[in-house]
Design brief:
Length: 327
């Protein structure tokens, strides 16, 4: 008996419903593994964190291994807890390969060196990084918070790498100001000091290079003597610096250029000039997304003569400190 139109439609509807149920009920497809370049970047990011943790720990004076590694463990776990098991395994393999490339294992190298550590400093550092990676990975399943979801995509936490960040910094500086020419046609040097601060926007390109840009404001007082009297005239300054920084684990060097505007007490005219500066410093371990740092810097500023005002040249040096807020 040939089925009628209603029966045929009912059969087709039933098949469609069964297919829909099957599609809904089938297991969800597992996420595709991250591309190799993502895995490599995540491994490099965690390795950078571990290297910085070990470098800073060693800089305070390494004593007994057991206690030094225990002190480093919280920061190491913070970096590794967010990493998947695949990334964790890659980090351990990368750290151990670095130790072998430098002549490891460390114990065998020390025996071959007559029981001395002299000349094995790079291998010692790599061996410490490898041990920290192994111990942190072994402890991660039991000690990582349950709400931290491991991922194949991991960013460095101790250093800005391929990301945007904000910078707040400030400090004090000693100044020698040279005046030359002007209406009186004389030259002299004046001592002074002051301080300032700035808010910058930064962008890191890889683990080493970063650019920072934004406004800064500063003020200084100069000690001027005229006969038996001494005055402290104020100078206020605004700039728009561009800072290029090169970082190597925890140490960094930076260079900057900036256009400047200068306001001198008692003078109603603003003066334009420029700055060239250099700094060497070191960063610390991050705290709540903030990476603190400090450095010693020197700057040269020049304000050309105009309208019978003398040329001003400032030589400045001092301590600057700040934080990088990783976005």
């Amino acid at each position: 008996m040939k089925p009628g139109p209603f029966t045929a439609r009912l059969a087709r509807s039933g098949v469609s419903a069964l297919l829909a149920i099957a599609l809904v009920a089938r297991p969800a497809k597992a996420e595709d593994p991250a591309p190799a370049e993502v895995m490599a970047a995540s491994t490099a990011h965690v390795m950078l964190d571990l290297r910085k943790i070990v470098e800073l720990q060693a800089s305070t004076g390494w004593k007994i291994d057991r206690y030094e590694f225990e002190a480093m463990m919280p920061n190491a776990l913070v970096s590794l807890c967010a990493a998947s098991e695949t990334v964790r395994a890659a980090v351990v393999a990368s750290a151990e390969q670095a130790e072998l490339r430098l002549g490891g294992p460390l114990d065998q190298a020390i025996d071959a060196n007559g029981g001395r550590i002299d000349g094995l400093e790079e291998l010692l550092f790599a061996a410490r990084v490898a041990r920290l990676a192994r111990e942190a990975v072994a402890r991660a399943p039991q000690e990582c918070p349950r709400w931290v979801k491991p991922s194949d995509r991991v960013s460095a936490l101790q250093t800005p790498v391929d990301r945007w960040f904000l910078v707040a910094e400030g400090g004090g500086q000693a100044t020698i100001q040279f005046e030359r020419g002007g209406a009186e046609g004389v030259s002299n040097a004046t001592l002074g000091g002051g301080g300032g601060g700035r808010i910058l926007v930064g962008r890191a390109f890889g683990p080493a290079w970063s650019l920072r840009f934004g406004p800064d404001l500063s003020a200084k007082a100069l000690v001027k003597r005229s006969g038996d009297t001494t005055s402290l005239p104020l100078q206020f300054q605004a700039g728009l610096p561009m800072v290029l920084r090169f970082a190597r684990v925890s140490w960094f060097t930076s260079a900057e250029v900036a256009p400047l505007l200068l306001a001198v007490e008692g003078d109603d005219r603003l003066r334009g000039g420029g700055r060239l500066g250099f700094m060497v410093g070191r960063s610390a371990l991050q705290l709540r997304g903030l990476v603190p740092w400090a450095g010693l810097g020197v700057e040269v500023e020049a304000f050309p003569s105009f309208d019978e005002r003398p040329t001003l040249i400032n030589l400045k040096g001092g301590l600057r400190a700040g934080v990088d807020w990783l976005l």
